[in-house]
Amino acid sequence: MATTTPTTTGGADRARPATAGRPRGARPRARSRRRWGTTALAVAIVAVLLFPLYWMVNASLQPSAALLSIPPRWFPEDPTLDGYRAAVDTQGRHLLISLFVACGNVVLTLAVAAPLAWALARFRLRVGPVLLFALLIVQMVPGIVMANSLFALFNTVGLLNNTIGLMLAHSTLSVPFAAILLRAFMQDLPREITEAAAIDGAGQWRTFRSVVLPMSRNAVITAGLFAFLFSWADFLFAITMTTRDAITPVTVGIYRFIGANTTDWNAVMASAVLASIPAAVLLVLAQRYIAAGITGGAVKD
């Protein structure tokens, strides 16, 4: 007996993939072109954002007369360090003052914000929600309002033209931010570890110092770095709280230097380069801690 096999050409056509007729490498090539296009766009955006930094370094290595030439010189043809010598002579003291004030602000911020954040994260305080709300509100107050208020207060207690006064003024910005950041991180710390420390006989302060702070290292470094940057880049508090050149931070020092040397642009740009180095170095060294401190907790589900 002869048997016949039914034909299912229609079903085969329906089962055939829609891309069967395309060349085998068409989709990878299209994906590769999109990737290269995205990379080129990102590089162009970064180049535009970094151009002012490049021009600052370029101008700091050229004589002042060369900066006024038309067309401008895109590269230092005859590099000179005269601008950096003038910057060190005029801004060296201001750089040291800014460094001292910024480091002092970091110590003050962490000394206040870390215990406060742990208390808000672990203990059921009646005033906890109110205090947290106050920390959020403080960050919304315009800086000029706080500067004027602190000026009147510091003038009364004798903290004007004083590095301690500058540290206290900067801490009004950095302490609320650091406390909120550290609280968010410490809330994710496992209670089992702190309870085990309590069973071993450790008190609250010993547990905080020996267990909580080491586990919160990434968040502490992040909070400290932001406190340093707040203080290092501050201009409003610095110009409000200082009237004497001997206690002037570098931001105000550069501002007044520009007013007195409007033609000495290579020295001005060299001062800006020197003022950018500490912040840039800290950001490079602490970038992995910053990423972990902002986005991560101690425990992953």
CATH class of the largest domain: Mainly Alpha
Strand content: under 5%
Helix proportion of residues, in percent?
over 70%
Within CATH, the superfamily of the largest domain carries the name MetI-like
Q: Would you identify the regions where 5 or more consecutive residues have pLDDT less than 50?
A: 1-13, 297-301
> Count the strands?
0
- Helix and strand content put the structural class at mainly alpha
H/E topology pattern: HHHHHHHHHHHHH
Main β sheet profile = none
CATH architecture designation of the largest domain: Orthogonal Bundle
Number of helices: 13
Indicate the CATH topology of the largest domain.
Answer: MetI-like fold
Integer average pLDDT: 81
For the record, give the distance between the C-alpha atoms at the N and C termini, rounded to a whole number.
67 Å
C-alpha-based Rg, rounded = 29 Å
The structural domain count equals 2
Question: What would the principal axes of the Cα set say about the shape?
Answer: globular
Describe the SSE topology.
Blueprint: H1 9-15, H2 26-60, H3 64-67, H4 82-122, H5 128-138, H6 143-157, H7 163-186, H8 191-199, H9 204-215, H10 217-232, H11 236-241, H12 250-260, H13 265-295
Helix pairs in contact: 2-13, 4-7, 4-10, 4-12, 4-13, 5-7, 7-10, 8-9, 10-13, 12-13
Describe the structure in brief.
With 301 residues, the protein is an all-alpha fold.
Describe the structure.
- The chain has 301 residues and is mainly alpha-helical.
- The chain folds into two domains: 36-80, no CATH class; 83-295, MetI-like fold, CATH 1.10.3720.10.
- Helices cover 74% and strands 0% of the residues.
- The chain is built from 13 helices and no strands.
- It has helices at residues 9-15, 26-60, 64-67, 82-122, 128-138, 143-157, 163-186, 191-199, 204-215, 217-232, 236-241, 250-260, 265-295.
- Helix 4 crosses helix 7 and helix 7 packs antiparallel against helix 10.
- The longest helix is centred in the middle third of the chain and has 41 residues, at 82-122.
- It is globular, with a radius of gyration of 29 Å.
- The relative contact order is 0.13.
